[in-house]
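Write out the 3D structure for:
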Amino acid sequence: MSTIAPTVGISSTHPSDMPEDHASLPVWNAENWFYENWPVGQRIRSLRRTMAEGDSHMFNMLVTDIHPYVQDQMFAQREGIFGKRLIAGAFVFSAGLGLVATNCVNAFSYGYDKLRFIKPVFIGDTIYAIRTNLDKRPRYKDMGLIRASYEIFKGEGELVLYCEHLQTVKYNNPADFAGKTEKQ
Protein backbone atom coordinates (compact mmCIF):
# COMPACT_ATOMS: atom_id res chain seq x y z
CA MET A 1 0.00 0.00 0.00
CA SER A 2 1.24 3.47 -0.88
CA THR A 3 1.66 6.25 1.62
CA ILE A 4 -1.12 8.75 2.01
CA ALA A 5 -0.89 11.69 -0.36
CA PRO A 6 -0.85 15.21 1.10
CA THR A 7 -4.07 17.19 1.35
CA VAL A 8 -2.40 20.34 0.07
CA GLY A 9 -1.68 20.67 -3.62
CA ILE A 10 1.89 20.02 -4.69
CA SER A 11 1.83 23.11 -6.85
CA SER A 12 -0.48 26.02 -7.43
CA THR A 13 -3.00 26.42 -10.25
CA HIS A 14 -1.62 30.00 -10.69
CA PRO A 15 -4.88 31.89 -11.30
CA SER A 16 -4.28 35.16 -13.15
CA ASP A 17 -7.05 37.07 -11.37
CA MET A 18 -5.32 37.47 -7.98
CA PRO A 19 -2.01 38.85 -6.73
CA GLU A 20 0.97 36.68 -7.77
CA ASP A 21 2.04 36.08 -4.15
CA HIS A 22 -1.44 34.64 -3.50
CA ALA A 23 -1.65 32.71 -6.79
CA SER A 24 1.63 30.91 -6.11
CA LEU A 25 0.44 29.45 -2.78
CA PRO A 26 -0.60 25.77 -2.77
CA VAL A 27 -4.37 25.37 -2.47
CA TRP A 28 -5.70 23.60 0.63
CA ASN A 29 -7.53 20.34 -0.14
CA ALA A 30 -6.97 20.75 -3.87
CA GLU A 31 -4.75 17.82 -4.72
CA ASN A 32 -3.13 17.92 -8.10
CA TRP A 33 -2.04 14.30 -8.34
CA PHE A 34 -2.25 12.54 -11.68
CA TYR A 35 -3.40 9.04 -12.61
CA GLU A 36 0.13 7.72 -12.02
CA ASN A 37 0.11 9.05 -8.43
CA TRP A 38 -3.23 7.58 -7.40
CA PRO A 39 -2.51 5.04 -4.62
CA VAL A 40 -4.52 1.82 -5.02
CA GLY A 41 -5.42 0.46 -1.59
CA GLN A 42 -5.27 3.81 0.19
CA ARG A 43 -8.04 4.29 2.78
CA ILE A 44 -9.05 7.57 4.39
CA ARG A 45 -11.64 8.38 7.05
CA SER A 46 -13.55 11.61 7.41
CA LEU A 47 -14.44 13.68 10.39
CA ARG A 48 -17.96 13.05 11.72
CA ARG A 49 -21.08 15.08 10.99
CA THR A 50 -24.33 15.12 12.93
CA MET A 51 -27.30 15.22 10.59
CA ALA A 52 -29.28 18.17 11.94
CA GLU A 53 -32.97 18.82 11.35
CA GLY A 54 -32.31 22.21 9.75
CA ASP A 55 -29.80 20.74 7.29
CA SER A 56 -32.24 17.99 6.41
CA HIS A 57 -35.07 20.45 5.88
CA MET A 58 -32.93 22.74 3.70
CA PHE A 59 -31.81 19.80 1.54
CA ASN A 60 -35.40 18.57 1.16
CA MET A 61 -36.60 22.01 0.11
CA LEU A 62 -33.70 22.46 -2.31
CA VAL A 63 -34.48 19.21 -4.13
CA THR A 64 -38.26 19.38 -3.55
CA ASP A 65 -38.33 16.14 -1.55
CA ILE A 66 -41.54 16.45 0.46
CA HIS A 67 -42.06 12.75 1.11
CA PRO A 68 -43.83 12.29 4.47
CA TYR A 69 -41.03 10.08 5.80
CA VAL A 70 -38.64 13.05 5.65
CA GLN A 71 -40.99 16.04 6.10
CA ASP A 72 -44.02 15.03 8.19
CA GLN A 73 -43.32 14.32 11.88
CA MET A 74 -46.92 13.26 12.60
CA PHE A 75 -46.99 10.81 9.70
CA ALA A 76 -43.57 9.40 10.55
CA GLN A 77 -44.53 8.83 14.20
CA ARG A 78 -48.04 7.45 13.63
CA GLU A 79 -47.90 5.69 10.26
CA GLY A 80 -44.25 5.32 9.34
CA ILE A 81 -42.47 2.02 9.87
CA PHE A 82 -39.55 3.66 11.74
CA GLY A 83 -41.59 5.84 14.14
CA LYS A 84 -39.56 8.96 13.32
CA ARG A 85 -38.44 11.06 10.36
CA LEU A 86 -35.67 9.90 8.07
CA ILE A 87 -32.84 11.85 6.52
CA ALA A 88 -33.34 11.58 2.75
CA GLY A 89 -31.02 8.98 1.26
CA ALA A 90 -29.85 11.47 -1.35
CA PHE A 91 -28.73 13.78 1.47
CA VAL A 92 -26.90 10.96 3.27
CA PHE A 93 -25.17 10.18 -0.04
CA SER A 94 -24.25 13.84 -0.69
CA ALA A 95 -23.13 14.63 2.84
CA GLY A 96 -21.24 11.38 3.28
CA LEU A 97 -19.30 11.71 0.06
CA GLY A 98 -18.64 15.36 0.76
CA LEU A 99 -16.95 14.39 4.02
CA VAL A 100 -14.14 12.58 2.15
CA ALA A 101 -14.28 14.32 -1.22
CA THR A 102 -11.00 15.47 -2.65
CA ASN A 103 -10.69 18.44 -4.91
CA CYS A 104 -8.19 17.04 -7.35
CA VAL A 105 -7.81 19.49 -10.22
CA ASN A 106 -6.96 16.63 -12.60
CA ALA A 107 -9.96 14.38 -11.83
CA PHE A 108 -13.49 14.42 -13.22
CA SER A 109 -16.49 12.44 -11.98
CA TYR A 110 -17.50 9.69 -14.41
CA GLY A 111 -20.38 8.32 -12.32
CA TYR A 112 -21.40 6.09 -9.43
CA ASP A 113 -22.05 2.35 -9.31
CA LYS A 114 -23.50 0.00 -6.71
CA LEU A 115 -25.25 2.75 -4.73
CA ARG A 116 -27.13 1.09 -1.87
CA PHE A 117 -29.02 2.61 1.06
CA ILE A 118 -28.42 -0.14 3.61
CA LYS A 119 -29.87 1.29 6.84
CA PRO A 120 -31.96 4.36 7.64
CA VAL A 121 -30.39 7.55 8.97
CA PHE A 122 -32.49 9.72 11.29
CA ILE A 123 -32.37 13.35 12.38
CA GLY A 124 -29.68 13.60 15.05
CA ASP A 125 -27.61 10.62 13.82
CA THR A 126 -23.90 11.22 13.36
CA ILE A 127 -22.22 9.90 10.20
CA TYR A 128 -18.69 9.49 8.92
CA ALA A 129 -17.21 8.10 5.72
CA ILE A 130 -14.37 5.83 4.65
CA ARG A 131 -13.05 6.00 1.10
CA THR A 132 -10.98 3.14 -0.29
CA ASN A 133 -9.11 3.43 -3.59
CA LEU A 134 -10.03 0.14 -5.29
CA ASP A 135 -8.38 0.07 -8.70
CA LYS A 136 -7.38 1.99 -11.79
CA ARG A 137 -6.92 1.28 -15.48
CA PRO A 138 -5.83 3.20 -18.56
CA ARG A 139 -9.03 4.23 -20.38
CA TYR A 140 -8.56 7.13 -22.78
CA LYS A 141 -5.68 8.76 -24.62
CA ASP A 142 -5.27 11.49 -21.99
CA MET A 143 -7.03 10.03 -18.91
CA GLY A 144 -7.29 6.84 -16.92
CA LEU A 145 -10.29 5.54 -14.98
CA ILE A 146 -10.07 5.15 -11.21
CA ARG A 147 -12.60 3.50 -8.86
CA ALA A 148 -13.05 4.16 -5.14
CA SER A 149 -15.60 2.82 -2.68
CA TYR A 150 -17.40 5.03 -0.21
CA GLU A 151 -18.80 3.51 2.95
CA ILE A 152 -20.96 5.77 5.10
CA PHE A 153 -21.38 4.76 8.73
CA LYS A 154 -23.52 6.11 11.55
CA GLY A 155 -22.95 6.01 15.27
CA GLU A 156 -20.16 3.68 16.28
CA GLY A 157 -19.72 1.93 12.93
CA GLU A 158 -23.10 0.85 11.54
CA LEU A 159 -22.87 0.77 7.73
CA VAL A 160 -25.73 2.80 6.20
CA LEU A 161 -24.63 3.44 2.60
CA TYR A 162 -22.23 1.97 0.05
CA CYS A 163 -21.29 3.12 -3.43
CA GLU A 164 -18.40 3.15 -5.86
CA HIS A 165 -17.24 6.36 -7.50
CA LEU A 166 -15.67 6.29 -10.96
CA GLN A 167 -13.44 9.18 -11.99
CA THR A 168 -11.38 9.96 -15.03
CA VAL A 169 -7.97 11.35 -14.10
CA LYS A 170 -5.45 13.03 -16.39
CA TYR A 171 -2.14 11.26 -17.01
CA ASN A 172 1.00 13.13 -16.04
CA ASN A 173 2.68 11.61 -19.09
CA PRO A 174 0.12 10.42 -21.67
CA ALA A 175 2.87 8.92 -23.87
CA ASP A 176 3.41 6.21 -21.23
CA PHE A 177 -0.09 4.89 -21.97
CA ALA A 178 -0.01 4.95 -25.77
CA GLY A 179 -1.41 1.66 -27.06
CA LYS A 180 -2.51 0.56 -23.55
CA THR A 181 -5.89 2.29 -23.33
CA GLU A 182 -9.38 0.79 -23.70
CA LYS A 183 -10.60 3.67 -25.89
CA GLN A 184 -8.57 5.52 -28.49
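The beta strands are 43-45, 49-50, 107-117, 126-138, 143-154, 158-170.
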